[in-house]
TrEMBL record:
Transmembrane intervals: none
Classification via InterPro entries: AAA_GajA/Old/RecF-like, P-loop_NTPase
Identification of the protein by name: Endonuclease GajA/Old nuclease/RecF-like AAA domain-containing protein
One Pfam family named in its UniProt record: AAA_15
SUPFAM superfamilies: P-loop containing nucleoside triphosphate hydrolases
Domain Endonuclease GajA/Old nuclease/RecF-like AAA stretches: 26-366
Organism: Paenibacillus marchantiophytorum
PANTHER family the UniProt entry points to: DNA REPLICATION AND REPAIR PROTEIN RECF
Length: 367
């Protein structure tokens, strides 16, 4: 009897990575329950280019911004919730924090048909994920919605957290009353991410003669070196697997140990363009220029808006698209601004999504 060819596994990390990378994902919806001041009655946020959350103190506005930042930190300690983030500071197995994310993806969805839900009305293709925290200071359980089974599955789209994180819009959180050092970091991170994005986009562009740039060739060389090292190490890896399997089978008969050795898919993670300690200085041109955390709150906020205005103008002027979409998560945009500047700030917020791959979500007490 002829054996049919083995069906390609839908979770093939390389195919999924390349497809999601080309899809330029965009946030569509967040569903939050049992997180901070948000209780069992879930809060659903449908995201467009810009969302403005208006409400009194302790209504959960900042918690909504924090929710996306938390899930985008999956794989690090920043994704672990303290007890204070559970409802009323109590860990109740029936009321565990849960955040669900719907992401729009574009293009050919065949490499990930299992994870892509088609909306017939608006022709959107949606990937659904959710995170559940069972206890404080532990990693959340991440699940993907399997459209074929019509249920949540412990296997997940995008695979590992670091790969998934690279293929969702990048968050840029700016808190209203963060410590000056944290505010400085938020502004510097925002500018650095954009600069890196532009430099990489420029370096990946082929020359007029159609030749690859030095940066593109470097990535190809790094990828080849990694694969060569893994191939040369295969026999040593197999030897370790055999030793571990022999040891474990004495307790669990029939069990074997396999080391899933694969090179990092996103090779760009290995190339650092700037030092991690990059600083932003401000002051008189001919005088002393100090770090941002040494400036007053008004100066820091003005710098933030200057940076956002610059980004909006640059997004409009550039010919090529960014390598990755972005989401601005901003508390109290009118804080520390002169009344005349509030109108300009509003224009900047609405310009960002129309001139580039940006979405904006802000909280405010005023209309």
């Amino acid at each position: 009897m002829e054996i049919p060819p083995k069906k390609k596994v839908q979770e093939d990390s390389e195919d999924l990575f390349l497809w999601f990378e080309a899809s330029r994902p965009k946030l569509r919806r967040m569903i939050i329950r049992n997180f901070r001041s948000i209780g069992s009655n879930s809060v659903t946020i449908d995201l467009d280019d810009i969302v403005v959350l208006v409400g009194p103190n302790n209504a959960g506005k900042s918690s909504i911004l924090k929710a996306y930042e938390v899930v985008m930190s999956h794989g690090s300690k920043k994704a672990q919730l303290s007890e204070a983030n559970f409802p009323n500071g109590i860990v109740n197995p029936d009321k565990l924090p849960e955040i669900e994310l719907h992401t729009i993806v574009n293009g050919d969805t065949s490499p990930a048909v299992r994870w892509v839900q088609k909306n017939v009305e608006n022709e959107e293709a949606i990937v659904r994920e959710r995170w559940i925290w069972s206890s404080p200071n532990t990693d959340p359980k991440r699940q993907g919605f399997d459209v074929e089974k019509k249920d949540w599955d412990n296997q997940v789209p995008w695979g590992a957290p670091n790969v998934a994180k690279e293929n969702r819009p990048q968050p840029h959180r700016v808190e209203a009353f963060a410590h000056p050092l944290e505010q400085e970091k938020q502004i510097v991170d925002l500018l650095t991410a954009i600069i890196k994005d532009r430099v990489k986009a420029l370096q990946m562009t082929t020359s007029e003669e159609g030749e690859e740039t030095e940066y593109a060739r470097l990535l190809i060389q790094l990828s080849g070196i990694k694969k060569k090292i893994l191939d040369e190490s295969r026999s040593e890896i197999e030897s370790i697997e055999t030793e571990l399997s022999t040891a474990i089978s004495g307790i669990f008969p029939g069990y074997v140990v396999k080391f899933d050795s694969k090179a990092e898919d996103n090779i760009e993670n290995d190339v650092s363009l700037f030092k991690n300690s990059a600083k932003l200085l401000m002051g008189p041109e001919l005088g002393y220029q100090s770090a941002i955390d040494k400036q007053g709150s008004g100066a820091r906020r003005t710098l933030l808006w200057s940076a956002l205005r610059l980004i909006a103008q640059a997004e409009s002027a550039k010919k090529s698209k960014s390598t990755r979409p972005h989401v601005l998560l901003l508390d109290e945009p009118e804080l520390c601004l002169h009344p005349n500047a509030v109108r300009e700030a509003c224009k900047v917020l609405y310009d960002l999504p129309t001139k580039g791959d940006w979405q904006v979500m802000v909280t405010t007490h005023s209309l």
